[in-house]
Amino acid sequence: MANSAAYSVGIDLGTTNSAIAYVDLTSEEPSPIEVMPVPQLVNPSEVAALLLLPSFLYVAGAFDFPADSLALPWHDDDSTRRWVVGELARQRGAENPSRLVASAKSWLSHGGVNRTSAILPFGAPDDVDKLSPVTASAQYLRHLRHAWDARFAGGTPTAPLDRQDVLITVPASFDEEARELTLRAAAEAGLARVTLLEEPQAALYAWIDSAGDRWRHRLRVGDLLLVVDIGGGTTDFSLILVSERDGDLALERVAIGDHILLGGDNMDLALARVAQQRLEADGHRIDRWQLQALWHQCRVAKEALFARPHERTHPITVLGRGTRLIGGTIRTELRRDDLNQVLVDGFFPIVGAEEMPARRRQMGLQELGLPYAADPAVTRHLAGFLTRQAGGPSGAAVRRGPSGLACPTHVLFNGGMMKAGPLGARMIDVLSGWLAHEGFAPLDAAHVLDAPDLDHAVARGAAYYGRARASGRGVRIRSGASRSYYVGIESAMPTVPGFAAPLKALCVVPFGMEEGTSAPITGRDFGLAVGAPAEFRFLTSTIRKSDAPGMIIEDWGEDLEELSPLEVTLGADDGASVAAISAHEIVPVTLESRVTEIGTLELWCNAKDGDQRWKLELNIRHNEDVGTDDVRA
């Protein structure tokens, strides 16, 4: 990343809201981190600068808005398209959800669909112009880029966003496909110089920045920090160990949880079902699109009730259906008791640490959609996460109880859902019960880190990290690869009718492998299929942390999770090597993995004879035949 950037810019590309924060890199004295208001449409022909950009996109119909009412304070290359981003999109989408793109970030991580195809709004009628999850994410980033440039690119010297040190945050549980697709969305938005940063780490950086030197007095060597990040679409768990390096405190991310599609969206839908039952009890029949509208209305009502504890109810309205209700609305209410019963008890039940998340029984036929978690209990998912954690990549051991449960000493909450005090209080109660059972003291207020400004903590933390990286000063969390990665190797065994050759898993990237480093797979050669279509299979694990590059696993059970397979045709260079490839479909190669500076993974296949090389990127599912220098997985 070039040091000529004037600003370190952190972008929280959230499921429900996005935010942008920045810090001046040119000042001799440390500058405070600022949150940038984002101009956006709040009503037709009305622009306001808000501190959050709602991550919603409304595909406007021909008669949805008056002509020329969607203009923004900048020229946009896509201004001919009737796409609305931000607050107005959220408002109008609540009234007409069939045209609303929501949860694009969750779709970006869904390997069961083609995320570069126009599929959103999912299930919308054919007359609605659809976008891909990548394009929708690019639209949010493009809006932020235009907003930044309108503020900073007109001065002397100019500071357009594409020349700054930009850090975009992603869930720690994002696999490499979702991370690379995020980078593709950034490139489509005109941001080619981007680094990805895990959201729980960014949240901790924000806390460190707000605490100043006090953070060294709050934590000590051996402490284990649990980051609980519950946003609009996902639940993320991370463990960060406090260790010592060169006589000073150091931080090491030692574990991340699975990618759990469980968050505010699920909770809002649960409340919408309660509202639906009340309306149907009053004689109203609620169809699919009315339920979508209730979903969005309940999100607003939930936020209002949590923000104003003295209020007992909040009104809910939705457009009616049928000839008697054309142009009319039907009404119900959301009650505070609903929040306690549905959200606190339903999503954060008091459970034992031995209670694991329930698994969904697979139906023969299923409706396509997001793969939401089968078990809505966040506390059971946390129990599963803490139960299976071992030491970090440095070999340091985490604090454990007699049962083997990883026992945190501190908790940091992040994500919009954790602004609700009752949810955090229930989490602490449950954790304290587990710790007491393991023989440790329960958590109290001193062990809950006072998270600053949950709406903007991630963006602020990303800007802090960019400043620390550029200046060489400040705290940096040791992390590296968030999981171990493997490539499938077909066994060299005789063919048996009716049985495929056994597949072995070769570790190519160990957990914690640092950015900008390489790992040659020494002592073994492999055969690479070239000149014809071939399938490559990749696997990953957040559990196996001691596997070294070159280790082969034959029986992995549930420790490894397979990613989407890739079928490509590897080509050859011009000249004499083409004849060699034609004569031998299997080329002997050595392997070398690399974690790039921006956090993506590459696997290089180096021919034993000659200087040919093929690169496989363990991130994007790519369906086209490509050349020797641009093979992507």
Helical content band: 25-40%
CATH fold category name of the domain at 7-196? Nucleotidyltransferase, domain 5
Task: Write down how many β-strands occur, each being a DSSP E stretch of 2 or more residues.
Answer: 30
Mean pLDDT: 85
First-residue to last-residue Cα separation: 25 Å
Overall geometry comes to globular
Strand content: 25-35%
Proper CATH architecture of the domain at 7-196: 2-Layer Sandwich
Task: Look at the structure and give the CATH class of the domain at 7-196.
Answer: Alpha Beta
CATH superfamily of the domain at 7-196: ATPase, nucleotide binding domain
Output the radius of gyration. Answer: 25 Å
How is the main sheet built?
6 strands, mixed
Uncertain regions spanning at least 5 consecutive residues: 391-395, 574-584, 619-633
Our count of helices gives 13
Broad structural category: alpha+beta
Quick structural summary:
The protein has 633 residues and is of the alpha+beta class.
Any chance you could write out the topology, listing elements then pairs?
Blueprint: E1 7-13, E2 17-24, E3 34-35, E4 38-43, E5 46-50, E6 53-54, E7 57-59, E8 83-85, H1 87-95, E9 100-101, H2 104-108, H3 133-152, E10 165-170, H4 176-188, E11 194-198, H5 199-211, H6 215-218, E12 224-230, E13 235-245, E14 248-256, H7 264-281, H8 288-307, E15 313-319, E16 329-335, H9 336-347, H10 378-387, E17 410-414, H11 421-437, H12 457-471, E18 477-478, E19 484-490, E20 503-509, E21 517-529, E22 533-536, E23 538-541, E24 552-553, E25 561-562, E26 566-569, H13 576-583, E27 586-595, E28 601-607, E29 613-617, E30 631-632
Parallel strand pairs: 1-10, 10-11, 12-17, 14-18, 29-30
Antiparallel strand pairs: 1-2, 2-3, 2-6, 4-5, 7-8, 7-9, 12-13, 13-14, 15-16, 19-20, 19-23, 20-24, 21-27, 22-26, 23-25, 27-28, 28-29
Helix pairs in contact: 1-8, 3-4, 5-12, 7-8, 7-9
